[in-house]
Amino acid sequence: SGILYVVATPIGNLADISQRALETLASVDWIAAEDTRHTKPLLQHFAIQQTLFSLHEHNEAERSEQLLVKLLAGENGALVSDAGTPLINDPGFVLVKKLRQAGVAVVPIPGPSAVITALSAAGLPTDSFRYMGFLPARSNKRKLELQALLETTATLVFYESPHRVLDTLSDLLEVFGAERELAVARELTKQYEQFVSGSLQEVNEFFQANSGKVRGEFVLMLQGAQLQQEERASSEFDPWINAMLQQNLP
Ligand code: SAM
Questions:
Q1: In what order do the strands lie in the sheet with 181-186?
Q2: What family, per the record (predicted)?
Q3: Is the Cβ–Cβ distance between 95 and 120 less than 8 Å?
Q4: Of ligand 1's atoms, which has the minimum distance to the CA of residue 88?
Q5: What is the pLDDT of residues 166-175, one digit of tens each?
Q6: How far is the CA of 11 from the centre of ligand 1 (A)?
């Protein structure tokens, strides 16, 4: 059977498309796109002519069946979303799972994703992070989900839309308190790219005072819970070494 290539596309700056992405998009038999109206101009920009099928959350099950048949018949296809890496808060999971179950090869063509792009320049710990996608739209549910994360030590990463970002910032402040550090990445790879970081209190005040900056696309990154000093010391050293260390403190 053929191969499905899962192709990442830019999250803003078109120059971020990879050589391999371009070669793949040009050479497959068809492209399944989240929104064909969105993908057409991208292909036009790179002078690629292709057959497009739509694959979005409302037709993914049915479309996946049709694409499976094509792949089993030996055609090669590509999957793209509107921006970034497919399946990362974008359609494609139903298709990829079906193809894996059917034994069809699925090959990733890596490239931009907002979560990794944001983390790579935010200045928060990245050794362990928890990607949470979008929080619930309603404040009650959002706060419940946030409360469940209070003790998570990994850096927490959220996607957010501009019309909810102020509400989400104030819920973060309410649940996690004023001191936790937050980094906001806005309009990554685009002309008005901006990083804002500080305590939850400071970042809230900044966006309330600069409501003109509450537009575009956002990634929110929250510092993880800090283990207490004693907990950390006792988990890392045995009591004897710990006592020695304390004696040497100024
Ligand atoms: N598949 C995409 C990826 O790999 O990042 C994510 C798609 S999701 C539907 C769209 C969300 O991703 C936006 O609401 C925003 O939170 C984030 N995002 C996408 N592009 C971004 C950018 N250029 N700057 C900041 N955030 C971005």
A1: 129-134, 155-160, 218-222, 181-186, 194-199
A2: Belongs to the methyltransferase superfamily. RsmI family.
A3: no
A4: 1
A5: 999 999 999 9
A6: 7
